[in-house]
Every structure is written in C-alpha cells, then in structure tokens.
Amino acid sequence: MNNRLLAREPIACDPALVETIASACNCSQLIARAMIRRGVSSAEEARRFLSPKESDLLDPFLLPDMQAAADRIRRAIEEREHICVYGDYDADGVCSTAMLVQRLQKMGASVEYYIPHRHTEGYGMSPDSVRTLHAHGVKLIVTVDNGVSAFDEVALCAALGIDVIITDHHSVGKSIPACVAVVAASRKDATYPNRYLCGAGVALKLIQALNDGAYTPEELALAAVATIADVVPLTGENRVIAACGLKHIQSLTGLNALLRAAGFNQTRVDETTVSFMIAPRLNAAGRMATALEAVHLLLGEDAVRADEIASTLNEYNQRRRDTENEILEEAERQIAARETIGKAILLAHEDWNAGVIGIVASRLCEKYHLPVILFADQNGVLTGSGRSIAGIDLFENLSVFSHLFVRYGGHARAAGVTIAKERYEEFRLAFEAYIAQNYRAEDFYPSFVYDEAVQLSELSSARVKELRLLAPYGEGNAEPAFRINGVRFASLRTIGKDDKHFCASVVQADRVMRIVAFGKSDLLEPLNTAADWDLLARPAINEYRGSESVELFWICANASEEKVAFFNAFFQQRLYNGDCSVGRIAEWYGSHDGRFQAELDDTVMRKHYRRLQSALSEGSIPLFALIRAMRNEELLALCVFTQLSFFAYDPDTEQILPNAGCTPRTLEESTLYRMLNDRQEA
Questions:
Q1: Which of 86, 466, 484, 613 is deepest in the core (most CB within 10 A)?
Q2: What's the CA gap between 59 and 117, in Å, rounded?
Q3: Are residues 349 and 403 in the same domain?
Q4: What is the SS3 assignment for 514?
Q5: Is residue 330 part of a domain?
Q6: What is the CATH number of the domain that holds 538?
Q7: Which residue has the higher pLDDT, 359 or 558?
Q8: CA-only gyration radius of the chain, Å
Q9: Is the pLDDT of residue 394 over 70?
Q10: What sections of 504-646 are H helices per DSSP?
Q11: 135 and 251 belong to one structural domain
Q12: Claim to verify: residue 454 and residue 539 sit in the same structural domain
C-alpha cells in the first residue's frame, strides 16, 4: 500500500466555540467542529460559511490596477478602438473569455477573441499572435487567465502601438510586464483579501468594475465553473462565487447542452457535476483540437447548434480518455525500467499529446506521491506539464532553473514549462537532485486529514445528509472524512471496466456498510491478508429505486493501531536483550497465521530485502511509516533483517536506516527466523 502515513489528527476545537456556533447556526456540533477545522472562528463567519451571499463579494477596486484597467477599456469603447480578449485553452480560460467578450459586446465594444492553439502555439501570448492581432487593427489587448510572464510580447505590443491590460491569477515573479494594468491578486504588492481567484474570478471582478458592481447570473455561473475546474481554494470569496454560481448553471444554453451530452440526469448541479461532467469536456476541446469550439458553445444561444458542439466535445473527451491511458501505460513502462525512482519523476516522449500529459502527471503524482513533470515534443521543443504534492511548491522550485527554460509559469501544485530538447537531460538531472537535496524523506509521505473518529453506527442517513451544509467541496474545503478504527473487509470484488475498482462490505461489530474504492483494485490482496484495519472514508447517501442508504468512499486504510503499537514495542526493546520480544513476535505470528499467508523462505526473504534496500536507498524512513505501509509478511522480514543488523534502528529518532557496515550473515543466525519457520513446519 502506498499510503505511508495514515492521517493527521484533527485539530482540537474549543468546546465553548463549538457550542456557540452550533446554537447560532442551528446545526449539530459535528458541523460546528467541521467549520472550525476549516478556519471559521466566530458565529458570524459560520453563518456566512453556511449561507454564502452574493453581497459578500469583495470590492473589485481593491485589486491592483483595476481602476486603470476599467478606465482604459471605457476609453477604447468610446473611441471605437478594436479590442481583443486574449484567453487560454483550459476551462478557466474559455469561461473567462466568454464572460468578458459578452460583457464588452453588451457595452457596445468592437471586440474579438483569441485563444492560442495548444499544440501549435502553446500557452499564453506569442510574437506571432501579437502580429496577427496588429494586422486585424487591434488597439487594446485584454488578457484573461494569462499574461503575467509575457514580458517580451507586451514589449512587442508597445512597439506596434497596442496597449495591454493583463488579468491573471498565476504566480507573479519579482517584476511584472510594463503595460497599462496588471490586475492580479497574486502580485507581490497586492492587498486584495482573496489571493486565490482563478482567471474567471478576476474576469468577474473586471466585469463588476465596468458595470457599477453588477453582473449577470450567467457570468456568475461561468465564474463558478472555472473556480471549481481550476481547483482554487473554495473558501471566502471563492466559496461565494462557487455556491451562488452553481444555482445558475442550467440557465446557460451551452452548459445545458453539455450536461445532456454527458448523460446528466439529476435535478441539481453541484461541484461534482462540474468537476466530472462539465470541466473535462470544456478542457477536452483544447486538449484534442481547438478551444475555440468550447468558447463558441458558451457564447451561443441556439439550442440545436449547442447540442452539435456539445456532442463534438463529448467525442473529444472520449478520445482524451483513450490517449490518457496510452500515455499512462508508456509512462509506467519508463518508470519500471529505472533502477530507482528518486524524489521526482520527469519523463519525456516524442509521441505524447501535450494536451493530455498534465492529467497523466496528476495521476502519477497521486500514485507515487512525488512531483511529476511529463514532456511532449511540440514544434521542436519540449513542452512540460507538472503536478506536485503538498509542501513542495512546483513553481518555486522551477524558478531555480528558469535560465534553462524558454518559458514557464503556474502555481505551487501545477505548472507548465517549455525547454529546448538539448537542455532537457541537464534539467532533469539537476531538478531531481535539487528536490532530493532540499526536502526530507517524510515530506514525500502522504498525509490524510480527517474530521472525526466515528463508529459505523454513528453514520446515520440524517447525519450524512447534514454534511451537505458544508458544500460546495473543493480545495481548502475538503469533503468531510471520517476515521473508522478496527474494521474488517468482506465480500471484496472488482468492479468497473478492466476491473480497476473494487467494492466491499465494511464490518464493525454488528454494523455492515458498503464501500467503493476507485482505481484501487490492487489492494484486494492486502485487504484479505489482515484482520483489522483503520479506515479513512467519506460517507455519502446512495439513492436506488426510491430507497436511501449510507455508503462509503475509500480514502485509505492502514493496519490497525494495535498492530502498529505491537511492532513498535518490538523495535523499542532493542532486539539484543536477553529478554527481547522475539518470542512475542513468533507467538503473534502463530496466533494470526490464519489471517495471512507468510512463507519466509530464502527466495521470499531476498525479495523483501531488495524492496527494503530500495526504499532506504536515499536515507532513513520513520518506523511508524513502514509499519503502517507494510503487510504482515514484510514486517516480519524487517524484524529478521534488523535482528541480523542488515538494517539499523535509531531509538532516538525512531527511524529505520540502512546499515552499510554490516557483516555477511545467514538467515539461520536470526532467532526470530528460526522460530517462525519452526512454527510454520509445526
């Protein structure tokens, strides 16, 4: 199992504050505690959290350069200057583009829009696109969801007599382009309270600035789609945008058509609908063809034409899935061919689709819990898309190597980079070494946050339904997760295409509940080999044929705390004392031999030794992390190897570490190995 750490304990909540919030908001103490753990610190904040109102949106003029941007656009409209909205090819970019184009049209502007082709132009402004717009007579470019790193292109615009207004949300470096305005909450000098607006969020603020604070429900809906799709924190103002905008999504002709094409048959559109039905199809246009089709869909009002475009986007999305699986298979082959993985994964292939590598990078990042950057050959250069884990800022680390890049940009968790082919290997080696040198081993162990430890019997339908008060869920406001200790799994079986998923019955005392795990079919064997597990899961209401039941969705599971404590005690007793715990380990094995199969012969032990040696090749690992991650058989092998001094245990730091100075020894020299084999033979 690749979950090294089970969970971080939830923060303690002040009982008085819990009671105050529960009373003021007429909610359960469970909901009150959940809000406190999500940053709520007063009854008034709690009321705003549970009931987001559009009146809570912030003053757009608090954003830097907003006044200058609004003034310049109004002047362009008055003087009939031709304006271009310069967007991006992802869901955030196309929503931003459609919003601002429609607003400018309503204001009587002469406006066109431009979105670069992902495969032939790449991200952001380019000299060729600037010259094209100059030939069209454009006098003002307004960027959405891009622009903060377009220094050369902005300089070219100035030389050609084109003014530029940048609206963006990506990380800003030490300086900004010299133009009319750079409207970005991410600027170093920005004081805007919400630093995590997405591109469409910034576009919405610009629309407010141009329209005396007003906007349409449709504009808010598009901002909500982008806010959810771009995975910005759903807290504060972003929560208002998402919660209030979701109510209006079905008022847009294009989005309704997209929902029909996706097979949507529910009455209520929520954040899950956006994440899994709307956003992937909007993104698929730019990944597989051109994002212009997605913009046409959002701008159009003809239902028949909208259905045609939506059907095309649906086909693109299916092709995207197929391409994604092909790239993933090739990436896994490359990883398997390496002797060691290291602390970062950088891979390249000339045939990969540059529009899809980001999704695959995300999947590999989740699986290996390492920063991942995948590169595709695009017009003679390598275009990379990267994803990272919590605590390792990808944009910041890429900045160290900016001298090697043609361009780069992004956020802490996601970034893009373009590099010449001849510089790739130099960058790969340097980046992998830099990450390994600057981060601790424990930085690479996943840590899961949960809300409460509960019994299955406590997860009633009423309690689970109440959790929806906390929605919409997303970054910064995770769907509530619960820890359920000491469970067993029964009736395990694979489900879905290619048997990649599984479902099972979770048993605790006299309660049984269904659980579904997506993409985790590889866990069936370990789940069958141990009796008791501590589970992290998210509950939900399953509605089927008019009846309701609570079911669980898998997050992770690890060996029970009882097992962790047992093996930890074994190592703490130092192994070499006359009264060591070898006998206790052997007894434990004998009492559990019906729950797992462990044949500790020479062949099996060599396999375990190689695996442990590889895991410890770059340093020590916390003992508790190994205990939680390992199956019983592997733990027994670790005990044997440690007794033989192949590995060492540091009781001060509670770390298992390689022991390079160990002398050759045979397995039979281990008292524990002999005792275990004696029990097997018996």
A1: 86
A2: 34
A3: yes
A4: strand
A5: no
A6: 2.40.50.460
A7: 359
A8: 28
A9: yes
A10: 524-529, 561-572, 582-592, 602-615, 623-629, 632-643
A11: yes
A12: yes
DSSP symbols for 425-491? HHHHHHHHHHHHHHS-GGGGS---B-SEE--GGG--HHHHHHGGGGPSPBTTBPPP-EEEEEEEEEE
Please report, to the nearest 10 degrees, the dihedral formed by the alpha carbons of residues 594, 600, 601, 605 taken in order: 150
The answer to whether residue 211 is domain-embedded is yes
**Lowest pLDDT segment from 170-174, 296-300, 396-400:** 170-174
Residue 22, in any domain of the structure: no
* Average pLDDT of every residue of the chain: 89
Residue 657 phi, psi (nearest 5): -140, 155
Compare 647 and 89 and report the one with higher pLDDT: 89
Report which secondary-structure segment, H or E, holds 537. strand 533-544
The predicted structure's pLDDT at residue 563: 64
Reported residue count of the chain is 682
Residue 590: pLDDT above 60? Answer: no
Q: Is the peptide bond before 472 cis (omega within 30 degrees of 0)?
A: yes
Q: Report the SS3 class of residue 600.
A: coil
Give SS3 for 412. Answer: coil
Max avg pLDDT among 227-241, 510-524, 645-659: 227-241
What is the torsional sign of CA 24, 26, 31, 35? negative
627 three-state secondary structure: helix
Regarding whether 136 and 82 lie in a shared domain, the answer is yes
Residues 488 and 394 in one domain: no
Same domain, 597 and 500: no
- Among 389, 416, 444, the domain boundary falls at 444
In this structure, what DSSP letter does residue 664 have? P
State which amino acid sits at residue 154.
Answer: V
Q: In this structure, what are the phi and psi dihedrals at residue 208, rounded to the nearest 5 degrees?
A: -60, -45
Strand order in the sheet with 381-387: 345-349, 372-378, 381-387, 414-420, 405-410
Report if residue 3 sits inside a domain.
no
500 is in which domain, residue-wise? 449-559
| Per-residue CA distances from 150 to 63, 181, 198, 403 (Å) | 20, 13, 18, 16
Q: Where are the alpha helices (DSSP H) in 337-374?
A: 357-368
Token look-up 């159009």 returns 300
Query: What CATH number is attached to the domain comprising 115?
Result: 3.90.1640.30
Rounded to an integer, the average pLDDT of 216-224 is: 98
Question: Phi/psi of residue 215, each to 5°?
Answer: -160, 165
Question: Residue-wise over 15-41: b if at least 16 C-beta within 10 A, else e?
Answer: eebbeebbeebebbebbbbbbbbbebe
Maximum distance among all alpha carbons in the chain? 95
Does the pLDDT value for residue 3 go beyond 60? no
Task: State which of 542, 559, 576 marks the end of a domain.
Answer: 559
- Tell the burial category of 387 from Cβ atoms under 10 Å away from its Cβ (0-12, 13-18, 19+): buried
DSSP single-letter state for residue 123? S
Give me the pLDDT at residue 194, please.
Answer: 96
- Determine the Cα–Cα distance for residues 172 and 184; give it in Å rounded to an integer: 8
Query: Are 480 and 565 in the same domain?
Result: no
Does the pLDDT of residue 441 top 80, yes or no? no
For residues 551 and 489, state if they share a domain: yes
Q: Where are the beta strands (DSSP E) in 88-209?
A: 110-114, 138-144, 163-167, 181-183
In the chain, the amino acid numbered 471 is A
The residue ranking higher by pLDDT, 665 or 502, is: 502
Distance, CA of 52 to CA of 237 (rounded, Å) = 9
Beta bridge partners of 375: 348, 384
CATH for 421:
3.10.310.30
Across the strands, what pairs with 55? none
Overall domain count for the chain: 4
pLDDT tens digits, one per residue of 489-502: 889 899 987 888 99
Q: Work out the average pLDDT over 104-115.
A: 98
Question: Contact 84/142 with Cβ under 8 angstroms?
Answer: yes
